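Self-study notes.
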Amino acid sequence: FSNTLGNDQFTVEFKEKDGTTNIIKSRPNMITNDPSKAVPGCNLIIFTVPAFAHEGYFKAIAPYIEPNTVVVGLPSQPGFQFQCCDLLGIGGKTCAIVSFESLPWACRIQKFAREVQVLGPKDTLACAIINRGCRPHFPILPTIQYIIGKEPKLTLAANYLSINLLADSVVHPPMMYGTWKDWDGKPLSEKPLFYQGLNEFAADMLDKVSTELFNTAQAIQKKYPEMDMSDVIHLFDWYKLNYRESISDFSTLQTAMRTC
């Protein structure tokens, strides 16, 4: 990344909801694969890597993380909180853990380490905060909101379990299976679309998975009334809540995802 960027600035093409585009040019203060240089002195650490990479990064930063650090999963995906508690060691025992349900934007890499396109922010984005005795140096949610920008509007979920049960965290497996289950192994004539190419079979699988997660949340709340699981909603409702200004066809889950 560092060699590719060189001394140039990184370019972000940000597409606003009104159709306008803003060009933002900047560059990271530090680019390094050495946690001993990057972590000491940090009181806010944001994970923006895929879930499979979380464990490696937790282990890498554990020797250098300082008390009262705020660790953010953006997104966290199910299990982020448990890995954080398990792998950060002594320094992590007073860390606050912030788990977001999804990414704040849809993004596309245009040129590696040089240019990225942001297709637009979500309307809202929920998170759960586990303080674990942390005494942060700043108000957690307002600070993250300042870093992300005015949109999406960040909200606080009732508990971390609801973040883990939100259907957005399990969207990709049904979509991948629905897209490729009948593939004959031969090259395709053109690149398949992912969300915009959602077929009826995959949409039906998504609906069933989402319904099962919603029913699970309802069963938890029925057995433990003190657990507020109202943040767990069906994926279709989640799309209508987070992309209401971007979707052009709200008829079904499939059309909502294809026209978002």
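Second protein, same conventions, sequence then structure:
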Amino acid sequence: MSRLLFLTWNGAGNQPPAIALAQELTVRGHEVTFAGYASQRVRFDELGFDFRLLERADAAYPERPPPEGWMAALVDAVWACPEQLADLTDILDANSYDVVVVDCLMFGALALLEKLSVPVAVLVHSAPGPLAAPGDGMEQLLLAPLNELRAQAGRPEVERLWDAWAPFPTLCASIDELDPLAQKVPPSFTYVGPLFERMPPSRWRSPWPSDDPRPLVLASFSTGPAWDQTSRIRRTLCALADGRHRVLVTTSESDVEGLTVPGNATLLPHLPHAEVLPDAVLTVTHAGHGTVSASLAHGVPIVALPNPAADQPALARRVAELGAGYALDGESAAAMDIAAAVDAVLADGSYATAARRLAESIASSPGVRGAAALLERLAR
């Protein structure tokens, strides 16, 4: 049995792949501990994992959305957070671990671990090209504060965000087809495929008769705090209000009070993708990697309304380039644009064919078992 420490933060889509990998490792007889922020404790407690608080880093985390927006605030509180150095030092001084698995955006922890002898792996919850391509927005936002932090940790500057991952085995929870830069990543990067969290049945029952012939459309938007998804939900409901489809919308924390819900639609806060995607013909989504990969794993094409940051615009473009979906401007697309995109995708069978080809690629990837095996080899 090995003891593994996972370092994480509450970034919505970054957590399920870490949880999926931890679940697999637990089944294989290993002991897993998570270390993160106070907002995550309840989730990991409910999942049965030991949880350690990054006390100093958590104290720097905003209690409410700051005036400058979440993205800028996360630089200091998570991504280039100097308090992680002391927090992780305390945890490692008090406990012995065979492997430390670090969320790819926790650059403070990575800077410290470069100097230590404990085996380390980086977990990238998306495709590295869409998430942090050299010269793109994430790198422009993070590179200067990252290098200031590395100087504090006694580490040399890096020219790219990828260079902070490259010293370690880096597990990318995606397939290379979804990454337009797959041929340019460092040799330490391995595409293991999407890692899907095991979730208990929701006991949800469809409100539609089993013989309802209308196609089912899933609308699933971001679960993270950085963007308000209410407008995307409103426009999607309006786009699909003509009654030709069954529409299931997962709303997460979005404020949907006051929205007009047509008779052919139903809203739920959460529903495991695996319970609805086998019956869906299309997903309308913000194009986060979790929803994109889950839809494609079931051969379901996509209409993308990406939020204007992180990996979402690049993933939306890539899905469209691969012929498995339609990418719109998530901020400005009107209901009529969404309706037209849905009609176009459903009328042309090539979109579903391309999605099924990607489903085959996902099914043949190493997956969670292959990723766990890589960590087991690292622990020896």
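Instructor comment on the second fold: The chain has 16 helices and 13 strands.
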